[in-house]
Specification:
The structure holds two protein chains of two kinds. By secondary structure, chain A is of the alpha/beta class. Chain A is built from two helices and eight strands. Chain A is globular. Chain B is α/β, with parallel strands linked by helices. Chain B is globular and about 50 Å long. The chains are: A alpha/beta, B alpha/beta.
Chain lengths: ~110, ~300
């Protein structure tokens, strides 16, 4: 089920590489559709670099629900059950830290540049 | 709170409860844990228990993943165990994660299952019960009658003071469980009127000591709350969240976490994450369970018995 979701999302996004062992690195993410995988109670990559105007998609690969909540509440997902996704488009440069409101030790950030 | 008569004050409702009793698997005496056998060896012969209450935790109604394809069924089994007890516990405390996703149908089903026991139940929320649009309003609408803030409250029963705390609301990035200044202030005032000889039982979802920081298994500001408890001769702190039994004794305080009725989680640091642990189907019910707590008449000790669903 996870695999299906990932393949579907990647296909939609037109990404060639499949995010298996080596998930999309920041350099790739700048050109491909940027994704963050929530897996084993971590956001991967922990820091994601994108360009202004890009849409970041988070997908929950865990067997437990998580959320994506910006530290400034700029963006906040609904609860993401297994396989659920959340997307947000970044329109301004800057660093955007976020966390999981259920498991707040889980933190990540999106670094947006021009 | 639909299990309660909304017009009845908690204290009044509890006052008319009958006595009940049970054996002890392990008991605390003078801050040192000692094991006693259940029945048969005369250990209980001269000890008449004053009353028993029951702890249920982490029922995760709605969970249907490989670690347990039907958490409703195992919750029903747990409640059946309560129903089968020869003497009814005075009441039940549920230490949170009633549901998996805070959905109305999950709360409905959980209530329906528990209703079979016909025993008054006090709830505190887990983080899984805070996932509605209102960040916990659905929980409060059902169970929050008479509570403060995100759902904290206290009541007295047969000389024991019980306090339900909420450490899953408004959590902060990078942190663990959190009570918040308002709740700690309320706790200080709530305890102020009680003599130090009053036995205290505190219950909350996430452990009130830092059990494993890497997984957020603890409460960041618990130490401030515990400051107000140190003068009491007997303090029992009952938590859930980690889906396994953990115990700690600190001075006059006993900390204990209950098993889940839904799925096990790994022991700290033994897996890449605290996610649901998949075990062979035949082993699942040996890792799920309920906790009985007994106060003996005339004594200030509490005896806790953890029973597996498979037992």
């Amino acid at each position: 089920m996870f695999r299906y979701s990932i393949v579907l999302l990647t296909a939609l996004a037109g990404v060639v590489a499949t995010p298996v062992a080596g998930r999309p690195v920041a350099a790739q993410a700048a050109t491909a559709a940027p994704m963050v995988h929530i897996s084993n109670f971590t956001f991967g990559p922990q820091a994601l670099k994108v360009k202004i105007g890009q849409t970041v998609t988070w997908v929950n690969d865990d067997d437990i629900p998580h959320t994506v909540m910006s530290g400034t509440k700029l963006f906040k997902s609904k609860v993401l059950d297994t396989g659920d996704t959340f997307s947000f488009t970044f329109t301004k440069a800057g660093a955007y830290p976020y966390f999981c409101s259920l498991h707040p030790h889980m933190t990540g950030k999106v670094l947006v540049s021009a | 709170m639909d299990l309660f008569d909304k017009s009845t004050d908690r204290r009044d409702a509890l006052r008319c409860m009958a006595w009940a009793g049970t054996g002890a698997l392990w008991a605390m005496s003078g801050g040192v844990a000692s094991s006693t056998m259940l029945g048969g060896n005369g250990a209980r012969a001269n000890a008449v228990p004053s009353f028993t209450f029951l702890q249920l935790s982490d029922s995760h109604v709605g969970f249907a993943k490989p670690a347990n394809p039907d958490a409703r069924a195992t919750y029903r089994e747990a409640v059946s165990k309560v129903i089968a007890m020869p003497e009814k516990p005075d009441f039940i405390i549920h230490t949170g994660d009633i549901t998996q996703l805070s959905r109305d149908d999950e709360f409905d089903d959980a209530d329906q299952i528990l209703k079979e026991a016909g025993i008054q139940t006090f709830h505190v929320p887990g983080e899984h019960d805070m996932l509605d649009e209102g960040n916990g309003k659905a929980f409060l609408a059902r169970y929050g009658n008479g509570s403060k803030g995100a759902g904290w409250f206290s009541f007295d029963h047969k000389g024991i003071h019980f306090v339900g705390l909420v450490n899953v609301a408004d959590l902060k990035p990078g942190g663990a469980g959190r009570l918040g200044a308002e709740q700690i202030g309320w706790l200080a005032k709530d305890l102020a009127g009680h003599a130090s000889s009053t036995p205290i039982v505190i219950f909350a979802h996430i452990p009130l000591w830092m059990l494993y920081a890497e997984w957020g298994w603890g409460t960041d500001d618990a130490a401030q709350a515990l400051t107000h408890l140190r003068r009491f001769g007997s303090v029992t702190i009952l938590n859930g969240h980690i889906h396994q039994i953990a115990q700690k004794v600190e001075g006059n305080m006993i900390f204990h976490t209950a098993r889940s009725t839904a799925f096990p989680q790994p022991m700290p640091g033994t897996a890449p994450s605290p996610g649901p642990q998949v075990v062979p189907a035949g082993q699942l019910r040996g890792l799920l369970g309920i906790t009985e707590a007994t106060f003996k008449r005339g004594e200030h000790q509490i005896a806790l018995v953890d029973t597996m669903l498979s037992a």
